[in-house]
Amino acid sequence: MMEKEIEKYIKAGKITANVLEFARTLILSGINDVCELCEEIESKIFKLGGMPAFPCNICINEIAAHFSPYPSDRIKLPKEGIVKIDVGVRIDGFITDAAISIPLSKNYKKIVKCSKKALENAIKCVKPGIKTGKLGEIIEKTAKDENFKPIKNLSGHLIREYNLHAGKSIPNIRTLFSQKIEEGEIYAIEPFLTFPNAMGSVTSINKARIFSLAKLKKPRNREGEEIYREIYRRFRTLPFSPRWLLDLGPLESVLEKIRVLIKEKIVHAYPVLVEESGGYVAQFEHTVLVTKRGGVILTKKAS
Ligand code: MN
Ligand code: MN
């Protein structure tokens, strides 16, 4: 990778770390309106000189991933459970992706700590040549040693320019299928843990809050033309929230046009993912650059 590209990743990573720290302070200060939190977090990304690479995800309890609220959802943080904040920042097309979990009550401190440890243990073993399945094994072992269960159908991912999920994945369990990690690659590693009596897998529900362009093709239906153009101009093929298109009209009319594009398979909807048996989920995530000397965490706060 070119020096200039690495610099952009480093910058994006620093912003990501700062924004997550900011998110933690907001939550600890008592702000509990989830949409307000999302918007504050996203505007902090801009203030620090980055762009969101995807909508800020705030997932509560059994909701594991892909939730970013609309103002009309009117969701508040509960008094019990776990909240996960997952943030992506990009400088041009260079993306970093990281997440933290915050226990909302004391029963969830241990699982939160353990997911952080699973992430740290996996990162310690990152080096060129290591197999993705080995990292999954380390995550699984860290979870099971403390009697937690990793979510088997969620995984970390290779990141490339303008591409958040660039092919290879890092599982959260030991897998037979495994791929080699190579020097110069960038991975998001993200253990998701739940409780031992839960299924340990996620399923999609019939609700989506995050979308992306799946196909670069002018819609047949004229209704969809303007919004298609704007989505491409603003987000390319990266995930977006309809909240980011409210200058084009009220939410309902924006969603109506997005539905037209979904029908034509031009836009992809990401369904919200929940733990299949309702188990509460904790997650930590870092973006890591693979170097000769090992994994360098891009999304760590400078100390
Ligand atoms: Mn993430
Ligand atoms: Mn990720």
For this entry, give a set of tags:
3-stranded antiparallel sheet, 31% helix, globular, 27% strand, 303 residues, alpha+beta
Write the layout of secondary structure elements.
Blueprint: H1 3-28, H2 34-47, E1 51-60, E2 63-65, E3 82-91, E4 94-103, H3 109-124, H4 132-145, E5 149-150, E6 155-159, E7 169-171, E8 186-189, E9 192-194, E10 202-213, H5 225-235, H6 251-263, E11 267-275, E12 282-283, E13 286-291, E14 294-297
Antiparallel strand pairs: 1-3, 2-11, 3-4, 5-9, 6-7, 6-8, 8-13, 9-12, 10-11, 13-14
The protein binds manganese (II) ion (2 copies).
Low-confidence stretches: none
* Overall geometry: globular
Overall mean confidence score, pLDDT: 96
Structural class: alpha+beta
Helix content: 25-40%
Number of helices: 6
Instruction: Please provide the count of β strands.
Output: 14
Structure description:
Helix 3 packs antiparallel against helix 4. With 303 residues, the chain is an alpha+beta fold. The chain has helices at 3-28, 34-47, 109-124, 132-145, 225-235, 251-263; strands spanning 51-60, 63-65, 82-91, 94-103, 149-150, 155-159, 169-171, 186-189, 192-194, 202-213, 267-275, 282-283, 286-291, 294-297. It starts with a helix and ends in a 6-residue tail after the last strand. Strands 7-6-8-13-14 form a five-stranded antiparallel β-sheet. Helices cover 31% and strands 27% of the residues. The protein contains six helices and 14 strands. The mean pLDDT is 96. The chain is globular. One manganese (II) ion binds next to strand 4.
